[in-house]
């Protein structure tokens, strides 16, 4: 280390501090008038010392001559008369020494030898003492240097600001050397610029600006810049250094100094800065010792600066990370709050739906609805207002208020409640808004004046039937637009629940009255039966009952399947014996019977079956057989007919009789049926075969649109053969390239700007040409081949996406795919192999696919969404369309079914508008957009826009084509 080398040099130099004390000590042992000169030299450090008693230069020169002979080992005086006392030797530590003494008279030889031996011991003792003192001082300096370096390291790791840290480092350096004037500069050799981190000078008034970058062009005649480019330490008067480096004098760079010392700081053999000290009034203040010290300290200062910068960078990164975590935490908290709000809303809606069924009375229903609303927002002051039956009065079936304890029924006036009913829109009004409405004469407040009032209408169909209201009397509580949207959404379900509850109460009343009548009639019948039963024996009654149960349907009393097959066997036997006799079997199935069971219950369904059996019996002859086969299936055996026209005439009468409306469970129902006819043919061997063909004809009628009949003939047999052939063609087409994707554009309704396409499946059949899906989808679904066809379509769409472009492409995904656990992974692998952008792909699914297996569907949709593939709900409004499942799935868009879009113009406009408005409200609440399907004219497009729908698809904007349309977006300027 540099300070160790310096220690030896200091030791020899300090040994020279003996001065004349050593020579004086030797002279005291000689006669008066003697002169003594002593010289020594340490060859390891290259330094020498000298001590004399004021002897002549010749005496000193002689000592130097002896010392230059490399310390001869013997006493060999050159001139014994002139220099009787002289010798030179090498000490044990390697130091060369020489002594020369002159006396008036030469001494005896023994005296001379004795004195020289004594002189050697004295010189050795003095030098040893001096060296020990020098080593002690050197050790003390080393300790001070080490302590200074410790202090510099501590300062670098402290929390001090950069300026304070450098000021304290300056104080540490000043404790080691003269450093009143010191500055530290950093150098960027790439940008060729410097920054003065610290500057302390008693004459130069420059103030350091650590963040200011100074270009080298601004320091053309700076000794500091020359030092940085020179790359080696420089020491001496500043004018000599400028002369050495070829730098011109420039008074702008400070005054000249008597002594100037600058050492560069290096990092990986590159100069990155310098430390400079200078003295203006004392020359030769700095030497090799100071240069070595400052060089050593400079590297520690650089280390300290690096640690300081690293700490600042770490603190900056920690701060950035902390801010990022805070932002992420804030977003997470917002998401949690939103999810909690959605869960509370969903629970509230479920609760309202449940209350409409479980509440014992309407009063109890209103109280529980109030509790539900209170869980969602501030509802201490809450009331429900309903229009009377004649719409002339306003009734308050439920009211809780801090100030208006009672609200009596009143005639319609100009209150805030009537304002909401008249406009059919929610009203959120604070004190100022209420005052403004009063000033305009539009409302007239009643009761205590609210600070904030929120009321939303209750609808039944398209008409407003009441208002649900919350209000606040305190300035500290105000309602927001979010509260308005929430209450509006809840009010919609309250309207449904209220209507259901009122209908249920009316039904309960009617049922109670009916039960009373039934009970009365039952008592009368019981009395009559008692008289009848008295005349009939118990055994006969039991036998008749068992026989009837074996051959008749328990619900309708009609013959059952067993009795029908028995009569069919008899009819077949008669027809085989007499070729002129023929018969027919009519097989019918009630349309949408399951809907009746699911909506109003199985008891109501049983009522409908009984009524249907009665009507069918009323259309046949007395000798014809009407049987119930099970469920909603009936069969009619008509014998002794002239031909098919008789069977068709009967089918017409049956369908007409069934189509008449009837009341079931308090509701008016319009039943219908699908009917199949099978005529007797000699190929039939039993009644089961006849029923089978009649059943097949019935399904043909149901597929043709229901409420009609179909006759089983050879065409149906040919249809079966055709289906087999179509299935074979389908298998061959899968192995070829018969299936292609057609693309129909999806646009913004406002400016018709293209946003994407829907990929539609088409089949180029070899003989039949281009086939639409409805011509082969049934065969594909029944045979299980449609899944392979779908994957062919998906592959074509992914290849189209891989070719680039703008906008997304949506594909239809059947429920079959959602039953496969690897559908999402397989689709994502296909996208990845093709190099397509998954964010441009959408999948269109139906409500059935979601509800078939909810957990699996939810996992699949989340997996696809995490990779950018979003989901759209197709044909929305034709299935369940309920919040009970929709809010749970990550749906990006609702596609409004084309049946509702078509109904926006024409006789069904009110119903279609109501449905579309409800769908828009639902989509708005869930934060998703909608697409209207089947837009074919401008009237439909305009109606959809007015209802809030943003996007559309249909023949108005383009027919499906084999190529993706590319057209620029149109901007609406109006």
UniProtKB/TrEMBL annotation:
A Pfam family that the UniProt record links to this protein: EAL
Highest rank taxon of the organism? Bacteria
Q: Which InterPro entries match?
A: Biofilm_reg_signaling, EAL_dom, EAL_sf, GAF, GAF-like_dom_sf, GGDEF_dom, Nucleotide_cyclase, Rev_trsase/Diguanyl_cyclase
**What are the residue boundaries of the EAL domain, all occurrences included?**
723-974
Matching SUPFAM superfamilies: EAL domain-like, GAF domain-like, Nucleotide cyclase
Q: Which PROSITE patterns is this protein grouped with? A: EAL, GGDEF
The UniProt entry, under SMART domains, shows:
EAL, GAF, GGDEF
For the GGDEF domain, which residue ranges apply?
581-714
Protein name per the record: EAL domain-containing protein
């Amino acid at each position: 280390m540099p300070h160790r080398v310096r220690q030896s040099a200091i030791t020899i130099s300090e040994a020279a501090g003996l001065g004349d004390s050593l020579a004086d000590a030797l002279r005291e042992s000689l006669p008066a008038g003697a002169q003594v000169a002593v010289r020594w030299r340490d060859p390891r450090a290259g330094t020498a010392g000298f001590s004399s008693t004021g002897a002549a230069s010749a005496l000193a020169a002689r000592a130097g001559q002896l010392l230059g002979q490399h310390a001869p080992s013997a006493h060999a005086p050159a001139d014994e008369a002139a220099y009787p006392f002289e010798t030179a030797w090498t000490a044990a530590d390697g130091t060369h020494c020489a002594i020369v003494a002159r006396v008036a008279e030469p001494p005896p030889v023994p005296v001379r030898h004795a004195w020289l031996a004594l002189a050697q011991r004295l010189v050795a003792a003095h030098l040893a003492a001096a060296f020990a003192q020098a080593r002690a001082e050197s050790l003390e300096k080393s300790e001070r240097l080490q302590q200074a370096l410790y202090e510099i390291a501590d300062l670098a790791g402290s929390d001090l600001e950069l300026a304070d840290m450098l000021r304290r480092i300056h104080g540490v350096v000043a404790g080691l050397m003269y450093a009143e004037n010191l500055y530290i500069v950093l150098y960027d050799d790439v940008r060729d610029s410097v920054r003065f981190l610290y500057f302390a000078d008693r004459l130069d008034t420059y103030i350091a600006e650590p963040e200011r970058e100074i270009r080298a062009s601004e320091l053309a005649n700076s000794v500091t810049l020359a030092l940085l480019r020179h790359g080696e330490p420089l020491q001496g008067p500043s004018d000599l250094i400028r002369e050495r480096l070829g730098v011109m004098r420039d008074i702008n760079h400070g005054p000249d100094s008597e002594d100037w010392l600058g050492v560069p700081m290096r990092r990986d053999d590159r100069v990155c800065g310098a430390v400079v000290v200078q003295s203006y009034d004392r020359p030769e203040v700095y030497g090799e010792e100071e240069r070595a010290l400052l060089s050593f300290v400079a590297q520690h200062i650089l280390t300290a600066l690096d640690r300081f910068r690293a700490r600042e960078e770490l603190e900056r990164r920690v701060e950035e990370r902390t801010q990022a975590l805070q932002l992420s935490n804030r977003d997470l908290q917002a998401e949690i709050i939103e999810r909690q709000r959605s869960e509370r809303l969903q629970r509230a809606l479920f609760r309202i739906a449940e209350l409409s069924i479980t509440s014992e009375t309407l009063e109890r229903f209103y109280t529980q609805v109030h509790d539900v609303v209170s869980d969602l927002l501030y509802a201490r002051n809450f009331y429900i207002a309903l229009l009377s039956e004649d719409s002339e009065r306003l009734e308050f079936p439920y009211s809780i208020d801090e100030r208006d304890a009672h609200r009596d029924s009143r005639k319609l006036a100009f209150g805030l409640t009537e304002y909401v009913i008249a406009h059919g829109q929610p009203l959120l009004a604070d004190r100022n808004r209420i005052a403004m409405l009063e000033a305009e004469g539009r409302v007239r407040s009643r009761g205590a004046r609210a600070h904030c009032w929120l009321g939303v209408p209750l609808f039944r169909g398209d008409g407003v039937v009441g208002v649900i209201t919350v209000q606040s009397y305190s300035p500290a509580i105000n309602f927001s637009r979010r509260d308005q949207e929430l209450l509006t959404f809840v009010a919609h379900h309250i309207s449904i629940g209220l209507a259901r509850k009122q209908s249920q109460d009316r039904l309960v009343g009617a049922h109670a009255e009916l039960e009373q009548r039934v009970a009365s009639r039952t008592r009368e019948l019981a009395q009559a039966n008692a008289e009848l039963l008295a005349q009939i024996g118990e055994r006969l009654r039991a036998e008749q009952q068992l026989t009837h149960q074996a051959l008749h349907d328990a619900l309708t009393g009609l013959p059952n399947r067993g009795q029908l097959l028995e009569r069919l066997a008899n009819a077949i036997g008669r027809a085989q014996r007499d070729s002129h006799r023929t018969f027919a079997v009519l097989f019918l199935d009630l349309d949408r019977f399951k809907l009746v069971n699911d909506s109003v219950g199985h008891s109501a369904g049983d009522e409908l079956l009984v009524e249907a059996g009665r009507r069918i019996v009323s259309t046949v002859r007395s000798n014809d057989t009407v049987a119930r086969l099970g469920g909603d299936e009936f069969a009619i055996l008509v014998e002794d007919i002239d031909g098919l026209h008789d069977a068709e005439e009967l089918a017409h009468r049956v369908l007409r009789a069934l189509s008449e409306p009837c009341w079931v469970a308090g509701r008016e129902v319009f039943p219908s049926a699908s009917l199949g006819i099978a005529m007797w043919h000699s190929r039939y061997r039993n009644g089961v075969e006849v029923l089978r063909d009649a059943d097949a004809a019935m399904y043909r009628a149901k597929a043709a649109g229901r409420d009609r009949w179909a006759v089983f003939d050879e065409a149906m047999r040919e249809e079966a053969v055709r289906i087999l052939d179509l299935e074979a063609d389908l298998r061959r087409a899968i192995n070829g390239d018969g299936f292609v994707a057609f693309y129909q554009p999806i646009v913004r309704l406002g400016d018709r700007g293209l946003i994407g396409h829907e990929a539609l499946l088409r089949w180029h059949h070899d003989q039949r040409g281009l086939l639409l899906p409805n011509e082969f989808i049934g065969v594909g679904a029944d045979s299980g081949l449609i899944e392979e066809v779908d994957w062919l379509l998906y592959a074509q769409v992914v290849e189209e996406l891989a070719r680039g472009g703008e906008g997304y492409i949506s594909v239809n995904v059947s429920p079959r795919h959602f039953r496969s656990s690897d559908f999402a992974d397989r689709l994502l692998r296909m996208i990845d192999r093709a190099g397509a952008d998954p964010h441009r792909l959408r999948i269109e699914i139906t409500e059935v696919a979601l509800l078939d297996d909810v957990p699996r569907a939810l996992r699949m949709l989340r997996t696809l969404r995490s990779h950018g593939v979003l989901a759209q709900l197709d044909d929305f409004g034709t299935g369940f369309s309920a919040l009970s499942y929709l809010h749970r799935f990550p749906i990006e868009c609702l596609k409004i079914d084309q049946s509702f879009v078509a109904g926006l113009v024409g006789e069904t406009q009110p119903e279609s508008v109501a449905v579309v408005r409800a769908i828009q409200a639902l989509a708005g609440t869930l934060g998703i957009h909608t697409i209207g399907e089947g837009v074919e004219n401008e009237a439909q497009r305009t109606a959809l826009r007015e209802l809030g729908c943003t996007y559309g698809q249909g023949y108005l904007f383009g027919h499906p084509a084999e190529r993706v349309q590319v057209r620029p977006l149109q901007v609406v300027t109006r």
